[in-house]
Write a structure and sequence with these properties.
The chain has three helices and no strands. It is mostly helical and 41 residues long. It is globular.
C-alpha cells in the first residue's frame, strides 16, 4: 500500500500539485482524475 501511495504522490508532484492531501482526496472521489494525470483518460 505504501508503494502505491508514494507512486501517487510522486505523480501529483510531477504534475505541479502543491497541496498533496487535497489532491489525494479529490482523486479518490473521481476515478477519472487519476487516469487523466497518467494520460489515460
Amino acid at each position: 500500500m505504501t508503494a502505491w501511495r508514494n507512486l501517487a504522490i510522486g505523480i501529483l508532484k510531477r504534475s505541479g500539485v502543491t497541496n498533496i492531501a487535497t489532491a489525494l482526496r479529490r482523486n479518490a472521489r473521481d476515478p477519472r482524475r487519476p487516469l487523466a494525470l497518467l494520460g489515460l483518460g
